[in-house]
Specification:
By secondary structure, the protein is mainly alpha-helical. Helix content is 80%, strand content 0%. It has a single domain, classed as Amino acid/polyamine transporter I. It has 19 helices and no strands. About 3% of the residues have low confidence.
């Protein structure tokens, strides 16, 4: 009995060590990946599934290696330079360039914050049967309270916990009983590339690989006080986070395709998606989908506001960081709270949130190629990166991704100008 007890204690001790090791290795990459599936992203994926069925699943498969390469490169540059992305852009390309990038990022982020707050509030109102507008301020206030009055480690654990809860989308999708053979076919490009189909591809890529993710992960890696001497940890964390993000996104599309697309229903908001899902997939799927929207909102809002605060603070040379006290990083926390306040205000404006999201994605669509170009230049500069410069594989992925983005931007501009 004593031998059994001693063996059990050893196994428990080893298990605790393994859990602590995993917890140390994952963090910014996983949180960033989870936050990517925000309510705005859910609208994009659900709309894509409702309009085109399973035929866009291959886009997320294609995005995954690009997503990992871009995020890992941004994080690696930040750790080598020991600075956030906005600071690095300012130092190497001038303050005007940094201001342009920061301003574009802030506008897109704040608009997305407004859409995300509206999405969370709408679903809470739907579940409680009350006017959803009364939840707009409480949602923003709760996020602000957690960031202002809780320590960074508490915030980190909360965000990681919320990331794991996104599994509800996978369960909801399975409950919708999709045609799995059709799902597999969706991973093979076969749809005729119409203009609307190309725009849907642009929307998915823009939602999946957004500029705010680069700024957040780069700065959050510095918050973790990681060292570039262990670059493998960054690769593992980033790969795991981006894979998890896209797996969840794939199942959101599957859920929409197996219910809304089959029934011929188009939606424009997450609340509409939840309502439509209830009679088609059942009460449990509806509750899980609604829970997922609320979880994703509380996960993405700190990341969106945080990436804005990091970019603004780094551009103006302010002290920044969630691990800093409020009074020692006033500019950072002021920007964070202002982003939430302005985002909340947008919700009450007579503006269609779907249209607002569309145009912010257009803005992101032009900002992302610019940022990828900067990442390529910096990551291949030996005087900047030393022995941590990009290898051929990463350069090939980033270059291919840049070419695809530029091509899609040309198609998008042509569509907006009425050329096609």
């Amino acid at each position: 009995m004593g031998l059994y007890s001693a063996t059990l204690k050893k196994k428990t001790k080893w298990l605790k060590k393994d859990v602590l090791k995993i917890e140390k290795e994952i963090g910014p990459g996983v949180i960033t990946g989870g936050a990517d599936n925000d309510p705005a992203g859910i609208v994009t994926y659900t709309t894509a599934g409702a309009r085109f069925g399973y035929s866009l699943l291959w886009v997320l498969l294609l995005c995954t290696p690009f997503m990992i390469a871009v995020q890992e490169t941004a994080a690696r540059i930040a750790l080598v330079q020991k600075k956030g992305l906005a600071s690095i852009i300012k130092n190497h390309y001038g303050k005007k360039t940094a201001l342009l990038v920061m301003s574009s990022l802030a506008v897109a982020n704040i608009a997305t914050i407004g859409a995300d707050i509206a999405g969370v509030a709408a679903v809470i109102g739907l579940v409680t049967g009350t006017n959803w507008l009364i939840y707009v301020i409480p949602v923003a206030a709760l996020v602000g309270y957690l960031v202002l009055f809780k320590k960074y480690r508490v915030i980190r654990k909360l965000l990681l916990a919320l990331t794991s809860l996104l599994i509800v989308y996978i369960i909801s999708s399975i409950l919708a009983r999709p045609d799995w053979f059709s799902v597999l076919q969706g991973f093979i490009p076969a749809h005729i590339p119409t203009v609307s189909f190309i725009i849907a591809i642009v929307g998915i890529i823009g939602t999946t690989i957004s500029p705010y993710m680069l700024f957040w992960q780069a700065s959050d890696e510095l918050e973790e006080h990681k060292t570039i001497l262990r670059p493998k940890d960054i690769e593992v964390d980033t790969a795991f986070g981006m894979l998890w993000s896209n797996i969840v996104a794939i199942f959101i599309i599957i859920a929409a395709a197996s219910t809304l697309w089959v029934a011929g229903i188009n939606i424009e908001t997450v609340a509409q998606a939840a309502i439509a899902l209830q009679p088609l997939a059942g009460q449990t799927a509806y509750i899980l989908f609604a829970l997922g929207v609320i979880v994703s909102g509380f996960l993405s809002l700190p990341v969106l506001a945080g990436s804005t605060a990091y970019a603004v603070s780094e551009t103006f040379g302010w002290r920044e960081g969630l691990n800093k006290k409020v009074f020692s990083a006033k500019g950072f926390y002021f920007t964070f709270m202002l982003s939430l306040i302005v985002g909340s205000f947008i919700v009450f404006l007579p503006v269609n949130p779907v249209h607002l999201l569309y145009y912010t994605q257009v803005l992101d669509g032009f900002l992302t190629p610019f940022l990828v170009t900067i990442l390529l230049l910096l990551s291949n500069n030996k005087s900047v990166m030393g022995r941590y410069a990009n290898n051929r594989k990463k350069n090939a992925l980033l270059t291919l991704f840049l070419c695809i983005l530029v091509f899609l931007d040309i198609i998008l501009v042509s569509q907006l100008l009425g050329i096609f």
